[in-house]
Design goal:
Organism: Oceanirhabdus seepicola
InterPro entries: ATPase_AAA_core, DUF4435, P-loop_NTPase
Pfam families: AAA_21, DUF4435
Strand content: 5-15%
Largest sheet: 6 strands, mixed
Mean pLDDT: 91
GO molecular function: ATP binding; ATP hydrolysis activity
Number of helices: 19
Protein name: DUF4435 domain-containing protein
Distance between the termini: 49 Å
CATH superfamily of the largest domain: P-loop containing nucleotide triphosphate hydrolases
Strand order of the largest sheet: 4-8-9-3-10-11
Oligomer: single chain
């Protein structure tokens, strides 16, 4: 089934877009004009579009006011009970011009419309049964009412909480106990509100939902909307959201990117999928106006926290592994839809050779001036800042910590470090070695020349000499540049009479509070973009 939606072009003209499924997601940065676009879509097709505001009241009366279906429908769609002159343009509903910031208090109206719709369905069925009785014909099967559809959707998201509408009152049963609908949690109430809104709307409408994720727990959010979409599969659902997780989970929905709104017109573009970039990552970038830095780790890791403090003018995207950082940075640079943005990657040094680093730099992927991000907690500037924080008068503790890193940790692991560095650089050479050929003989020749290309003895000697010379010089910053040891930063706290596990958290707190010594010190070891 195809759906249509009218959208504004940048020149002010209107274009009708065809969609091949019943959901569209509008994304864009804060202030890009997403909600205003939703209001424009509704205003341009008043009869066929119903918009659910982001500013919605979750309050309703204990007993639902019963009205006729026509009265309830008019109240739901237009804000008044009587037949509406369309010149009002839903002014009653949107407080006469406050189309995007009105608090809409229509929970009871939506519930009233559900009951009225159910009553109308029952009346039609009974009338049909009576006609068949008079004609001596058998009855049709009892149809599923809109209220039963509401119960069914509710049970899919709250299977242990039974909801009923009895005698114009919402009641929920949980653990053999009943409680009133007005006593439900915010999450339960918003779920009921959204279900009622979407089921009460007449057939074949476009339903716009501004911020469909508000007050909904992530575990039920997607299940709720997919269940509603399934029941109302003849309606087009248009979601306005900044929740990229929600947007990406609607994998079959078209995504419309609001690039810009100048107060008069929108710059809109449908999002093209990118096989090399996860959709949520792509949507994150499109929903942000800043240039992007891809980094290792997760949103909760030390990497991300440090980068967000140092690179405040950039959008930091944690990607997990260094391979993802490399792939995503390349993908954004190659994506024509993102030509207006610059993407950079920052990864740990991790025994990389100068040759590999030069190649990565050419792709706007940069390595740290230390072996790994955790070593930033061990740099001399940070040690001195912690020493000052505790008001120690001398730098004996700083020197003891430095000696521990060099003499106790690095010197005892140097053989392992040399082996790891050698392995890493051989892997890169193998990865970058071209074995293609025009025939089998030429390929064989390249394989036979592989040992000469790598020259293991020279490589191992060069790496070994470099590590041993660094140890001999006791150059602390050079040690941190090549010493790749994950647990190093979590063993420093003891030198400042602080729990080792709390040491890194203290450094991050000082950084967030604007400690200049830590900020300037860390920045020295990070790329200058």
């Amino acid at each position: 089934m195809d759906f249509t939606l009218q959208l504004p072009n940048k020149d002010g003209s209107i274009e009708t877009k065809k969609l091949d499924n019943n959901s569209l997601i509008i994304i864009g940065a804060n202030g890009a004009g997403k909600s205003r676009l939703g209001a424009w879509i509704e205003h341009n097709d008043l009869k066929n579009v119903h918009r659910i505001s982001a500013q919605r009241s979750l309050e309703f009366e204990d007993f639902i006011q019963l009205k006729s279906y026509k009265q309830s429908e008019n109240m739901l769609l237009f804000g008044v009970e009587d037949e509406v002159d369309l010149t009002h343009k839903k002014g009653h509903r949107w407080n006469w011009g406050r189309y995007t910031n009105s608090m809409i208090d229509d929970f009871g109206i939506a519930l009233s419309a559900i009951i009225a719709k159910k009553n109308l369905q029952n009346e039609k069925y009974i009338d049909e049964c009576r006609k068949r009785d008079n004609a001596g014909k058998p009855h049709e099967k009892v149809p599923i009412t809109v209220l039963e559809q509401l119960y069914d959707i509710w049970n899919k998201i709250y299977p242990h909480r039974e909801i009923k509408v009895e005698d114009a009152q919402v009641v929920v049963k949980y653990n053999q106990q009943n409680y009133k609908g007005i006593e439900m949690s915010d999450g339960e109430r918003v779920a009921l509100y959204l279900i009622a809104q979407c089921l009460a709307v007449p057939n074949n409408k476009t339903i716009i939902i501004d911020e469909p994720e508000v007050h909904l727990h992530r575990s039920i959010m997607n299940r709720l909307w997919k269940a509603i979409e399934l029941v109302r599969n003849e309606c087009l659902f248009v979601y306005i959201t900044h929740d990229t997780n929600f947007a990406a989970s609607h994998e079959h929905a078209k995504k419309l990117w609001v690039k810009e709104y100048d107060g008069h017109s929108w710059d809109l573009e449908f999002v093209n999928t990118d096989e090399f970039l996860p959709e949520q990552c792509l949507l994150d970038i499109l929903g942000n106006r800043k240039n992007t830095i891809f980094v290792e780790g997760t949103s909760e890791s030390y990497d991300t926290t440090i980068y967000r403090e140092i690179y405040k003018d950039y959008y930091i995207v944690p990607c997990g592994s260094s391979l993802n950082v490399i792939d995503y940075t390349k993908a954004v640079s190659a994506n024509k839809q993102l030509h207006h943005l610059k993407a950079y990657g920052i990864i740990d040094r991790d025994f990389r050779s100068d040759e590999e680093i030069r190649y990565l730099n050419s792709k706007r992927i940069y390595v740290l001036e230390i072996a790994e991000i955790e070593n930033l907690f061990c740099i001399e500037e940070v040690l001195k800042a912690v020493n000052e924080h505790f008001l120690y008068e001398d730098e004996e503790r700083v020197e003891n910590a430095k000696n521990y890193v060099v003499e106790t940790r690095f010197s005892k692991q140097i053989s392992q470090q040399i082996a790891k560095a050698t392995t890493s650089q051989i892997k890169y050479k193998l990865f970058s070695y071209d074995v293609s050929g025009i025939n089998v003989e030429s390929i064989k020749e390249k394989v036979q020349n592989l040992q000469n290309y790598i020259d293991f003895d020279s490589l191992a000697t060069e790496i070994g000499d470099s590590f041993n010379n660094t140890l001999k010089s006791k150059n602390y910053s050079e040690v941190l540049k090549i010493f790749n040891e994950k647990g190093l930063s979590s063993s420093i706290g003891q030198y400042f009479n602080i729990n080792n596990k709390q040491y890194c958290e203290l450094v991050l707190r000082l950084l967030r509070r604007g400690n200049e010594l830590i900020y300037i010190g860390m920045k020295k070891y990070l790329p200058h973009l």
